[in-house]
Amino acid sequence: MNIQKTMSLMEKLTILSAAAKYDVACTSSGVDRKGNGKGMGNTIAPGICHAFSSDGRCVSLLKILFTNECIFQCAYCQNNCSNDVPRASFTPEEICTLTMEFYRRNYIEGLFLSSGILVSPNYTMELIYHTLYKLRHEHQFHGYIHVKAIPGADPLLIRQTGYLADRMSINLELPTSAGLHSLAPNKSRRTILKPMRQIQNGIAENKDELAVYQKAPHFVPAGQSTQMIIGATPEHDYEIMRVTESLYQKFGLKRVFYSAFVNVNQNEKLPMLPGGPPLLREHRLYQADWLLRYYHFSVSELLSEDRPDFNLNLDPKCDWALRHLDLFPVEINRASYQTLLRVPGIGYKSAGRIVKARRMNRLDFSDLKKMGVVLKRALYFITCSGHMMYRTKLEENYIFENLMRDRTQIPVGLRNSSYQQLTIWDV
Amino acid sequence: MYVFLCENSIEGIFTGVYDAWASRYGHRNIRLSLDTPDTYELFCEYIQVTPDLEKSRRIGRAICSSFGYEVYQDICQAIMAAGKEKKKALDKADCVYRTILLGFAMHDGHRVLTALGEPYVARVFELARTTNLEAHHLMGFLRFRELENGVLFSAIHPKNDVLPILGEHFTDRLPQEHFMIYDATHKTAAVHKAGSPFFIADVTDLNEALIQNVSAEELEYRRLWCAFFESIAIKARQNPKLQSQNIPKRFWQDTVELC
Ligand code: SF4
Fold first, then answer.
1. Does the Cβ of A259 fall within 6 Å of ligand 1?
2. In this complex, is the C-beta atom of B175 within 8 Å of any C-beta atom belonging to chain A?
3. Contact by Cβ (8 Å): B113, B124
């Protein structure tokens, strides 16, 4: 521990932010809270991105580990106890200072605190609790805090911490318990799902408390989220999305994040990924996730035992529409909101605008454009007052070819490099 | 045709709306326009509108009470947008005027901005969105530096007049800080003294020496932030195109980590 004392704040920050970066969640969304006029900070529901790192990801929170010393041995994690990496730990005061000073310079929207497991789950959870307590009460910080619940920690500690945080998360890590068993031997589905359930119940009880007594303290007001690593174990998209669906429905999660597996440890249990991390696959999973949360789709409509993986070439909604051409075209001036949601090129916001605007005027294609509809994608699937935008065939191959010419099917940056993302599981 | 020439500001355009209404020339014979046109048309009478706080307030109140605060806010944000005035037929001032007229003609004025089938409403909607988006971007991308005297200072170069939105946001967020956000495009600044409301001031000559004089710790926190920013990126996911799509290059100069 001698090394630690002489370590500068700069060194610690470098080590403990690099160690935290594979946690993909960085959103500061989900809660509106005005400043209180005394301390520092507020939050706004859509969240705010403060920077974008060179991998293009949003940087919103000071994302760090309390410590990267860890007694566990998760094969995919660079902090696992058998790895030879530099180790460091913050003090609670150091975390508070960094958070406050970064926040007042508007570098960040708040803190995302996670941690390796130092000594024991309880010991670690207590350090985290202590840090948040200091930040909220001594430093009067009212900005956003996302905190990790440590699997296996005392429920009481998790509960107390939840009253100080905006969002809590416990990572599911791998989509199936078999995967977890082989790669994270010290963790189990049970120690992950138990606190997840506890937080869910805590949020529900808190709603009741708040209904009765408005000044009751808020418990995890921005909800809980989790993360799964994609491509480290051989699950298909179908299994992953079914897990996601039940996390939303049965555990009331706000968000599920997907993290394309990056092989940092060269462990023989892990797949080599010659094409780099499966970024395009991860992208399709996020798109499908949106379809579940905002577009009233269910997983069984998108995938099945026989078609267990998403088409990497097309976004899942286009792919679905092409397999259901009998439902199209739909008439913009008549179709229900639910039907509009299913049209490729129409987002949920534009669908809402269409429904409102058509009460006043008949809409045509130029109006749709102003409402944010992507016509080059939607035109095959819609009519305005009975007319299509121009003559087109309602035929799968024809539309597929045209959609593929539309470069937006593959997001920027993934176009050249990872068109073919073969992982060993694909072959 | 009567053309009311308004100054490009909330007060200017609202006064124009007031004067146009009060003139009783009939809405079909009236047009609002921003500032002096290059060529005067024949058979048009041009009327110069002098911004008037009282008239502008009245219009503001009428919009608020008839259409609700949200619509009021959107209309103000539309006016705050720079709005390239290449589309002659869709002059910003005139679009605002026609939108307000439509609102009063409607059964439920709260819904006026959903009538996107009307080109002038669509224009107001689009302008409001532009301002809003830029303000939201800057809520994240602007950076404060701590000056020697403890004041937080920030310089930005926005296209639209987003300072009122930012001033409100940061006053709520940093109530106990003295801060100043300098808008170098419009030469204005939002100034906030700890514990008070903020105000907007014209700034013609900024004291360059003063704002370069940063506090002793300032450079240390910048270095820490840049180190964090570097180490948080995942090299295996390097994607500069996505990065510059998410944070357009024009914002880079005023950040700490990218400039
Ligand atoms: S518990 Fe596992 S995933 Fe977490 S830091 Fe330790 S080794 Fe890494």
1. no
2. yes
3. yes
Could you report the per-residue pLDDT of A229-282, keeping only the tens digit for each? 999 999 999 999 999 999 999 999 999 999 999 888 878 888 888 788 898 999
Question: Which pLDDT tens digit goes with each residue over B58-68?
Answer: 999 999 999 99
Q: Is the pLDDT of residue A321 over 50?
A: yes
| Long-range contact pairs involving B183-188 (C-beta distance under 8 Å, separation at least 24) | B183/B156, B183/B157, B183/B158, B184/B155, B184/B156, B184/B157, B185/B156, B185/B157, B185/B158, B185/B159, B186/B158, B186/B161, B188/B161, B188/B163
What are the C-alpha distances in Å from A116 to residues A75, A349, B77?
14, 40, 46
Question: Is the C-beta atom of A172 inside 6 A of ligand 1?
Answer: no
What sign does the dihedral A387-A392-A395-A398 (CA atoms) show?
A: negative
By residue count, chain B amounts to: 259
- Banded model confidence at residue B185, pLDDT cuts 50, 70, 90: very high
Q: State the pTM of this model.
A: 0.90
d(CA A80, CA A83) in angstroms, rounded, equals 6
Note the ipTM here.
0.91
How close is the Cα of A122 to the center of ligand 1, in Å? 15
Domain count, chain B: 2
Q: How far apart are alpha carbons B130 and A107 in whole angstroms?
A: 23
Q: What span, in angstroms and rounded, lies between the C-alpha atoms of A110 and A104?
A: 10
The answer to whether the CB of A25 is under 6 A from ligand 1 is: no
Of the candidates B175, B227, B242, the beta carbon closest to that of A56 is on B242
A363, A351 Cβ separation under 8 angstroms = no
> B 187-226 residues with CB below 8 A of A?
195, 217, 221, 223-225
- More confidently predicted of A425 and B88: B88
* Nearest-angstrom CA–CA distance, A316 and A291: 8
Cα Rg for chain B, rounded, in angstroms? 22
Domain range spanning residue B191? Answer: 142-258
Is residue B147 located within the same domain as residue B44? no
Residues B162 and B81 in one domain: no
Find out whether the beta carbon of A118 lies less than 6 Å from any atom of ligand 1. no
The verdict on B128 and B10 lying in the same domain is yes
Helix (H, G, I), strand (E, B) or coil at B154: strand
Q: Which fold has domain A9-265+278-309?
A: TIM Barrel (3.20.20)
Residue A369 sits at the chain B interface (C-beta within 8 Å)? no
